[in-house]
Every structure is written in structure tokens, then in C-alpha cells.
Design brief:
Mean pLDDT: 93
InterPro entries: ADH-like_C, ADH-like_N, ADH_Zn_CS, CAD-like, ER, GroES-like_sf, NAD(P)-bd_dom_sf
Distance between the termini: 22 Å
CATH superfamily of the largest domain: Medium-chain alcohol dehydrogenases, catalytic domain
Largest sheet: 7 strands, mixed
Shape: globular
CATH class of the largest domain: Alpha Beta
Family: Belongs to the zinc-containing alcohol dehydrogenase family.
Order of helices and strands: EEEHEEEHEEEHHEHEHEHEHEEHEHEH
Cofactor: Zn(2+)
GO molecular function, one term: alcohol dehydrogenase (NADP+) activity
CATH topology of the largest domain: Quinone Oxidoreductase, Chain A, domain 1
Number of strands: 17
CATH architecture of the largest domain: Alpha-Beta Complex
Helix content: 10-25%
Radius of gyration: 20 Å
Strand content: 25-35%
Catalytic activity: a primary alcohol + NADP(+) = an aldehyde + NADPH + H(+)
Low-confidence stretches: none
Structural class: alpha/beta
Number of domains: 2
Length: 354
């Protein structure tokens, strides 16, 4: 028997969402039910709402939300890792085949049969379209839920489940540590967590930005330097300086100026707008530069990221809004009017239900 819960659903070409009743499946043996407390608002939610990414709909519209925290309310008969009352965090994936080479090494985000996204994905068992965390209740396989460390604030930890792991994976892939020179292009929901994580790993961190209005923020977050990309006099000496650049800029832009800042064998990881077309291959030849991208992570990396954040006290800088102001959050996010991540308090959905 399914259960009904309220959610914020998108059903047209605007960013407007409305509260609707949706159905959550009955618990399977390895499922847990989660009461959602806080859900982050990701820029990819806007991409999905505008149809720029291949999320599916069941005809009723999308329910976004793929970075949330909450409390376990019920468990299936085969669940061993969680019990009712446990605090948990959930990210961008809720299932995978579990058998391919990628799944076996904890990189379910690269599942060769296709991972199941938290919203707009196709359930592997019954074929229904997944609906996300802009809701009061969620049901998922226990394997894709994570115990929320007690030291992390539940609201500020929610964005770690998308923005945090999106930054963590390329930092780990590049072997960033003490002595590494890392630049973060763009200081927003992704970028500010990139600064915190890279600095905690011991890297020398620089923020690259077109404007100077966030220079003080960058230094307060842990960066050692701030470079205006519009200031040629300061940018020219930085050519060949960085081992890794994390490009978190959501808008289309030219990658060539960033590639010129890379050192020998340096890497530019484009995470803010992977839908963008790349540069000419010739741009990579001088210095054996590498162009990569990343989106989310698997269970192994996400667990490691949460443990690292708990150890170093890292969470997102957030503005919490009641979920009834979700449309305001999306509109302001589209304008870049947030420092640095909106998080929706989903508790007000209980008032709408009553």
C-alpha cells in the first residue's frame, strides 16, 4: 500500500512550483522511510525545471530536490544499518544495479546500467518516476542513505549531499593535499564549499571571479588569494600557476583563459555547467593539460566526504527559508541572489497537510 505525502511540484515552463499530494511506495525489504527536515536548492533543479537536463516526468510534473537531511521513520524487514529515529542524509542517487564494475567499487554514479536519480529517474523495480526531496516524506534503499554525523547541523549539512560531493570527487581525483595549488572559479553554492574542502585538505586556494564583491568572503572561507579575471595585470602573472581549477560557473563562458592558468599536467574540472561545449583540443596541448568534469559521487566517496566534513566542521553557508517560499528561492537563485545555498525547511508542509 502506498502512502500519500505533500510535495512541491513543477508542472509548466516557469520556475513556479505548487503543493500537491504525491504517492510514496510501500517499504520494500531493504527500504527506509525518511521524514525530510531540510532540502537544499541546487542550480541543477533550475536546469531540470527548464528542461535543460534529461529528467523524466510521470505527467504530473517534477518534484525536485536531491540534497536533504531528515529522520528515519520506518524500516523494511531486511534493513540492518538504520532504525527509526536515526538522523540521515540523502543525495542525488537512490539506486543502481549494484553488480557492474563501477557499482562494485562504490562509484554508483557511473553505473553501467544507469543509476537512478533522486528525482526524475526511473525506478528499477516498478518503473515509476522518482520524485525528489521537496517533500515531507521520502522512501529509498538503505544503501543510498547515510548516517548524518551528530556534529553537523542538519540544515547546513544538506547541501553537502550534492554540492559537497561534487567538489570532493575532483579534489580527490587530482590528489589534492598539502602543497597543491587549487583555484576555484566562481564563488557560489558549489564554489564556497570547494574553498572550504580544498583549504582543509591543505591546498593553497585562490578564488577567481569577474567581480570583487566577494573578495572578503573568499578569504574568510579559507582562500589565500583572490584574483579578478577581468584584471589582466594581476591575471597575467598567474599563468601556469595552478594544479587544479574547479570551474563552478553556471553560465556559458570561455574556458581558454582558465586553461592558460594551469601548470604542467594541470587539470580544469568543469562542474558548474557541464552542458557547455568545450574548447579547441589545441588549447590542451601546451602543458599536457587535462579537461574533465564531475557530477555527484558514489557511496564510497560520499561516505568519505561526510566523515571529512564532520572531522573538520565543514558545512554550507546557507539561507533557510520555509518551503512555502520555494518559488522565491528559485527566482533569487536564478539571479544569483544567495550566499551561498538556499535550504528549504520542509516542516511547514505538515501545516498544509492539516
Amino acid at each position: 500500500m502506498t502512502t500519500s505525502t505533500l510535495a512541491w511540484q513543477h508542472a509548466n515552463d516557469s520556475t513556479e512550483l505548487r503543493p500537491v499530494a504525491i504517492e510514496r511506495r510501500s517499504l520494500r525489504a531493504d527500504d527506509i522511510a525518511v521524514q525530510v527536515a531540510f532540502c537544499g536548492v541546487c542550480h541543477s533543479d533550475l536546469h531540470a525545471i527548464h528542461g535543460a537536463t534529461p529528467h523524466m516526468s510521470d505527467g504530473g510534473g517534477l518534484v525536485p530536490g536531491h540534497e536533504f537531511t531528515g529522520t528515519v521513520t520506518a524500516v523494511g524487514t531486511a534493513v540492518t544499518r538504520f532504525a527509526a529515529g536515526d538522523p540521515v542524509a540523502v543525495g542525488t542517487l537512490v539506486d543502481s544495479c549494484g553488480e557492474c564494475a563501477m557499482c562494485r567499487v562504490g562509484q554508483e554514479n557511473f553505473c553501467q546500467l544507469g543509476p537512478v536519480s533522486t528525482y526524475g529517474g526511473r525506478d528499477r523495480v516498478d518503473g515509476t518516476v522518482t520524485k525528489g526531496g521537496y517533500s515531507r516524506e521520502y522512501v529509498l534503499r538503505e544503501r543510498f542513505a547515510y548516517r548524518l554525523p551528530a556534529s553537523l547541523d542538519p540544515a547546513a549539512a544538506a547541501p553537502l549531499m550534492c554540492a559537497g560531493i561534487t567538489m570532493w570527487e575532483p579534489l580527490q581525483a587530482a590528489g589534492v593535499g598539502r602543497g597543491s595549488r587549487v583555484a576555484i572559479a566562481g564563488l557560489g553554492g558549489l564554489g564556497h564549499l570547494g574553498v572550504k574542502l580544498a583549504a582543509a585538505l591543505g591546498a593553497e586556494v585562490t578564488v577567481l571571479s569577474r567581480t570583487s564583491d566577494k573578495a572578503d568572503d573568499a578569504l574568510a572561507l579559507g582562500a589565500e588569494d583572490f584574483l579578478l579575471t577581468t584584471d589582466d595585470d594581476r591575471l597575467r602573472p598567474a599563468r601556469g600557476r595552478f594544479d587544479l581549477i574547479l570551474d563552478t560557473i553556471a553560465a556559458d563562458h570561455d574556458l581558454s583563459p582558465l586553461l592558460r592558468l594551469l601548470a604542467l599536467d594541470g587539470t580544469l574540472s568543469v562542474v558548474g555547467n557541464p552542458l557547455m561545449s568545450g574548447p579547441r583540443i589545441l588549447e590542451l596541448t601546451a602543458g599536457r593539460k587535462k579537461l574533465t568534469s564531475n557530477g555527484t559521487g558514489g557511496t564510497k566517496g560520499t561516505s568519505a566526504m561526510l566523515a571529512f566534513c564532520a572531522e573538520h566542521g565543514i558545512t554550507a553557508d546557507i539561507e533557510v527559508l520555509p518551503s512555502a517560499r520555494v518559488n522565491e528561492a528559485l527566482t533569487r537563485l536564478e539571479k544569483g541572489d544567495v550566499r551561498y545555498r538556499f535550504v528549504l525547511d520542509m516542516s511547514d508542509l505538515a501545516d498544509l497537510e492539516s
